[in-house]
Predict the structure.
Amino acid sequence: MSVEALLVTAAWKGPYEKDYNLVPWLTTFFVYSKRCARNKNMGNVTSAPEFHFIQLSEDPDLQPVLFGLFLSMYILALFGNLLIILTVSSDSHLHTPMYFFLSSLSMVDIGFISTTVPRVIVDIQTHCPVISYVGCLTQMSLFIIFGGMDNMLLVVMAYDRFVAICHPLYYQVIMNPSRCCVLLLGCFLLSFADLLLHYVAVVVNFSNCEDYVEISNFFCDPSELLKVACFDNFTSSIVRYCVGALFGLLPISGIIFSYYKIVSSIMRSSSSSGKQKTFSTCGSHLSIVCLFYGTGLGVYFSSSLSHSPRSVAVASVMYTVVTPMLNPFIYSLRNKDIKTALRKILSRVF
């Protein structure tokens, strides 16, 4: 007997009313087995909400193109970041604080892009952009942890360049190995604090939500979850702007201050070759900072104001996919030490 027929039979037991407790269990089983084909307006069958993502394009002819695009960007990101990690770990000349943080950034970028892109690839193939409540919270948690560490590592790298250029005589003392490990641990702890704030705001306020929740993005974006959580828009905006200012605007203010001091120090230098090397190193870092913070903060703060969810989703691709993919190539192509180490590795292989 099919599940549908079993449901009908259970619902019409007549005098055996004491057996009605079978109906909710069977209904839940039926709904989850037919998740992608069910009607969006059907009634509550489980206390946990179900999250539906928007598609980047509803044109069926573009689905293979999007699949190939996301898959190629994911492979490039994995290859580039793994190459940076291998290069830094294999060359003893690169065992310095600057490259320690660069390899840490590459590891975080692998986790960051792996949080969203594999799920998008599967959703495009299955035409089923649906995720469970637990799955959405897990994705949001990993996204905040890796995204927050990416965010904080950019600040730490700016601080490292500030010490190296403005206080070169004290660089080895200030940026000793134990200090570098403490800074890396601090990045994780601050990211975890960001996660706790979002958890309190999101999880508590989803307890009485409706069964069907639509997210105006292709992943469980924290700002979107704050927007659809079961509290008023004013409170949602307050939480969003406070968290964004604390973990977005303050770090970027630290980066701007560090580079202000760096530029002031460079302008006082008389060596043109030193200026060129410094601008080359700092320029690659600044380009990543502008791309990551420009799109990331723009999406986070404007998600409640935008009337075009698909444009928000496209902008999210820039800092969730494009930035982790470009990081290793920007740093390697503009850094002579990395290029020299890469030539040594390739000469050994070939």
